[in-house]
Amino acid sequence: MSGDSTVPALECRDVVKQFRRGRGFKKKVIRAVDGATLTLYPGELFGLLGPNGAGKTTLVRCIATLLIPDAGTIRVLGHDVFKDALFCRQQIGLLTSGERTLYWKLSARDNLKFFAALYGLTGKERDKRIEYLLGLLGLQEVANERLERYSSGMKQKVSLARAMLHDPKLLLLDEPTLGLDPQFGRFIRGFIKEELNKKQGKTILLTTHYMDEADELCARIAFINQGRIVDIKSPEEYKRDIPHKEILKVRCLGQFDGELLKGVSGIERVSAEFNDGVTTLNIVAERAEMVLSEVIEAVRARTRILGVDVQEPTLEDVFIYMTGTSLGADTKEEHETQYQD
Ligand SMILES: Nc1ncnc2c1ncn2[C@@H]1O[C@H](COP(=O)(O)OP(=O)(O)OP(=O)(O)O)[C@@H](O)[C@H]1O
Ligand SMILES: [Mg+2]
Predict the structure, then answer these.
(1) Residues 6 or more apart from 38 whose CB is under 8 A from it?
(2) Most ligand 1 atoms within 8 A of CB, residue of 332, 335, 339 to mutate
């Protein structure tokens, strides 16, 4: 069954996971995942994009069989993760960030040997696999050094190697570039897309709250907010489907706010950023050219214009439009509800 390419690599149906917090009257229930449904087809690089506290990690932990959902079903290559946990765990490689999932007192090589044993890999087969992964990630020269001496980027490489030890078909990568410097971030993103997805054909569920990352890597993205999947589409479809199509950016000398454009018709929203003596006005309009001349006139009446640019909306704009929440926001406490027995 698992060899059949028409069988989804991952299927989540109406998954609910609640956490209970506090006691007595203060008892609260948090619906961390609130009826999530999504399907990943073999070979897909799929993004789960949402702000802090949206429920991304909780859903990933349910899929990885580390948490038991309160409702719903999860299938990996057609097998139920709870009825067939052993099979499913063999198919899944999990990378979580920010947690101490590796032993910092051990070297990279010894860490990988330890985790290989958990997958039943031993002897020559194990050593071959470990050397291959160390080489692939450019870790061979430092492989005998203790992880405590590694930078966070290097540790993340070891975590990736760990997730790939048993050559799983489905990779769950939870915020794989969180907290990394730009150079490591770029390496990890390139590695995920080019090596893991394109070359090795892995199916990948990647969670992130960096919209650029989802935009760059993923063919389809599920927006998640307050435990609910808001929509699932390609980045292009999201951008096409919001009513405002363009963002006009006007840079001008001095400090101003949106009031400057009061009276200009056809503007949906204006925000202003001030930096180094220059204000950038971000003007959302259905079509930039329809407001352009009036905008220029209004700004020129007050100050000098330094530049004008028209941009397509970003995924951030789409997310704000659909949920009213910025991707940078922390929504952890927002979807708590009073618990009633
Ligand atoms: N073990 C737990 N006990 C109680 N509440 C929890 C637990 N784990 C998560 N939560 C709560 O569930 C909600 C979803 O958290 P989760 O970590 O899944 O979000 P996330 O999208 O991964 O956020 P982040 O971007 O911060 O990683 C939050 O309100 C969080 O506080
Ligand atoms: Mg998380």
Answers:
(1) 10, 11, 12, 46, 48, 222, 229, 232
(2) 332
- Specify which residues 232 forms β-bridges with: 222
| Domains with residue ranges and CATH for the chain | 10-239 (3.40.50.300), 243-312 (3.30.70.260)
Q: Is the CB of 53 under 6 A from ligand 1?
A: yes
Average pLDDT over residues 315-336: 69
Average pLDDT over residues 56-85: 96
Beta strands in 44-135 (DSSP E): 45-49, 71-76, 79-80, 92-96
Type of residue numbered 225: N
30 CA to centre of ligand 1 in angstroms = 9
Cβ atoms within 10 A of the Cβ of 84, count?
A: 17
Which of 245 and 58 is assigned the larger pLDDT? 58
Q: Which residues of 51-67 are buried (b: 16+ CB within 10 A; e: fewer)?
A: bebbbbbbbbbbbbbeb
* Of the candidates 10, 155, 7, the residue with the CA atom closest to the CA atom of residue 93: 10
Query: Which pLDDT band, with edges at 50, 70 and 90, does 341 fall under?
Result: very low
Evaluate whether 341 touches 245 at the Cβ level (below 8 Å).
no
Task: Quickly count: other Cβ atoms within 10 Å of residue 147's Cβ.
Answer: 20
Residue 222 Cβ contacting ligand 1 at under 6 Å: no
> Which tokens sit at 99?
């947690």
3-state DSSP call for residue 198? helix
> Which tokens hold the place of 101?
């999932």
Give the Å distance between the CA of 59 and the centre of ligand 2: 9
Dig out the tokens for 2 from the structure: 């698992």
SS3 209: coil
Closest to 314 (Cα-Cα) out of 214, 193, 186, 207: 214
